[in-house]
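Incident log entry.

Two folding requests arrived from the same account within the same minute. Monitoring flagged them as a possible duplicate submission, but the sequences differ. Recording both here for audit purposes.

Request one:
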Amino acid sequence: MIKGLYEAHLPVSNLEKSIHFYCQLGLELDHIVDQHLAFLWIEKDKSWLGLWQSTNVNLDYHPSIRHIAFQVTLEGLKKSVSWLKAKGFEPREAFGFSPIEPFVLPHKEYAHAKIHFNDPDGNSLELICKIDNPKGMMERMYLSDWERKSNE
């Protein structure tokens, strides 16, 4: 029945500024509703992000209400820190890892490689990809260390 995630929503304080920010990430503006809601395609005709202009943006952060993870390729993720910085966005610390490069959170047969950053309103954003874990490693580490240990 369920085939994927169609939409997610975030509160923003300045709709125009936020539309510009997300378009710089590669999302495509589809339409604006009543000057306070914008829909941007994450993946054209598959999934989109709704941005709601609100005076109540400064909610306490919790990943269940102010977090979006964008799927990227592993090659894209490897370039993510320089890509974000070139656009004027700063990766941030997450899970105890400094934002010098993506890091890996392993599970049994697979792992997730990721980097975190924030939008202009402090909403938590993440670039993430699923990777194989053929050696069953369970230690969290930077992606470069993961790749070196995977190839040993």
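Request two (distinct sequence, not a duplicate):
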Amino acid sequence: MSRLRLWQKLALLSALLLVLSGMALLAMQARQAVHHEQEVVQRLSLDLAAHIARRSELMDAGGMRNDAVRSLFGQLMAVNPSVEVYLLDTHGEVIGHDAPPGHLRRQRVDLGPLRALLDGAPLPILGDDPRSAGGRKIFSVAPLVVQGQLAGYIYVVLVGEQRQMLADDLATSGQWRATLWSAALVALAGVLAALLTFYWITRPLRQLTRRIEQFDVDAPVPAQAPEPLRPGTRDELAILNHAHARMAQRLADQWQQLREQDLQRRELVANISHDLRTPLASLHGYLETLAMKETTLSEQERRRYLAVALAQSGKVGALARSLFELARLEHGGVALELETFALPELVQDVLQKFELAAQARQVQLHAEFPPGLPLVCVDVGLVDRALTNLVDNALRHAQDASMVQVILSPDPAGVRVVVQDDGAGIDPSVGERLRRQSPGSGRGRGGNGGLGLLIVQRIVQLHGHALALEPSTHGTRFAFVLPHG
């Protein structure tokens, strides 16, 4: 059975049950046929014993007439070999018969069935068979009255010994053969019907099995979600197919996310390594120079080398702090402390931080916002950090004598924030990397710009939105939305 398919097992079991049911039905029909035949024969021969009792003088005042009994019983059984006639006394004792010697197995007949037949009980009624130690057969009975008194009973067994033997022989030769042929035909029809039925019913299950065997998480994600089930669907196989399709799509999506996260991790390690390599190499070089030429360097050169080394160590420290902050943001280590306030005030405070640096490069810092701007409900510290990163990033990459703008405008979801510079632009791939939450390349290299943008993206996401790199004719334009209060 282990080598058979599910539909084949179901078909064989169903065929077996069908054969067993068919055999049980045949047995019931055979029993019912015998019962019907017994009732018909007994009903037709119901008055046979009474006819014998009326037409014959079997007993007189002196008792039973043995010669008359044997002569009459012999004549009756010769005319109709299927019957056996007995004379019973009032207690059921057999006192007259024409059975061959040794064939009479029972000397007494139970009178209960006889009285039931005389009282008109439903047919068929079975009585004791004198020629069988435990057999019971249909019969006809009539009281034998002599001189106005009950002298005994005429007891006629309607299915005699000879007829029973002949019937058994015919049943052995014909009934079993018919039964076996019927069972074989039923089994054949049941197997064919079961094979076709279960092959058709289990076809969706076989298709599902093939899809499961062929499922590959590396395969492209399905272009569209599986079709929804029709309302009221109760087909378990259809529900199973739909559930598997949803599970396969979910697994493919999750696998794709895992691959993208692995790619992000690789890019993050590569970018951080690149960002750290330059300041560390510079720091190491200047410190090595100080160590090797300490006696030959002038005081002014020594101070200049130390200043450069301190500046490079500051860059390394800033990168370390950015990594620590990014880790906190990525792993849920930050709980938002929401406050409702006017965003233009925070923008002005952030721009004041960069006034001196902007004046040194003749870069104008400009904030633009309409009157009546709605309040926002955000974490002030995180939004301050996001704006600081964006303005610092724009200022470092803006051209001299250009402009960095922070533009605020109302949005259905809150307040829209745009940070625009007039620099050389940014690699368009950074927008895709921001979408995947990965540090960008291009202008992010050479500092902590890549990490800074990723920190901004995570802060904006914590507030329910996303950082977007919008197309611009010149420079770079970052935009995001903060929720209103």
